[in-house]
Amino acid sequence: MGGSLHLGMVSAFDEARGLGTVADEASTTTWPFHCTQIADGTRSVEVHRRVAFDVVAGHLGRMEAVRVTKL
């Protein structure tokens, strides 16, 4: 699955559910992501942390952030 590199900031993260959102710096779009997509394998990220990520069609057909990399 291919995507294009985006930069943004984690706008929300629910540690218990493993679900978060990241706000894209280049647009007003907010993308959902799952903790398994955090690139360093920690399954945790701080809110307001700057990240790089790709956006691809997920399993349910909605667009989501993947390969979320902490900067």
Entry summary:
With 71 residues, the chain is mostly beta strands. It is built from no helices and 5 strands.
Which characteristics define this entry?
71 residues; mainly beta; OB fold (Dihydrolipoamide Acetyltransferase, E2P); 5-stranded antiparallel sheet; globular
CATH superfamily: Nucleic acid-binding proteins
Backbone structural class:
mainly beta
How many β strands by DSSP? Answer: 5
CATH topology: OB fold (Dihydrolipoamide Acetyltransferase, E2P)
Q: Which strand order do you get reading across the main beta sheet?
A: 3-2-1-4-5
Number of helices: 0
- How does the major sheet shape up? 5 strands, antiparallel
What report would you give on this structure?
- The mean pLDDT is 93.
- A hairpin with a 5-residue loop joins strand 4 (50-57) and strand 5.
- The radius of gyration is 11 Å and the shape is globular.
- The chain has a single domain (5-70), classed as OB fold (Dihydrolipoamide Acetyltransferase, E2P), CATH 2.40.50.
- The protein is 0% helix and 52% strand.
- The protein contains no helices and five strands.
- The chain has strands at residues 5-14, 19-24, 30-34, 50-57, 63-70.
- It is mainly β.
- A five-stranded antiparallel sheet has the order 3-2-1-4-5, with no helix packed on it.
Write the layout of secondary structure elements.
Blueprint: E1 5-14, E2 19-24, E3 30-34, E4 50-57, E5 63-70
Antiparallel strand pairs: 1-2, 1-4, 2-3, 4-5
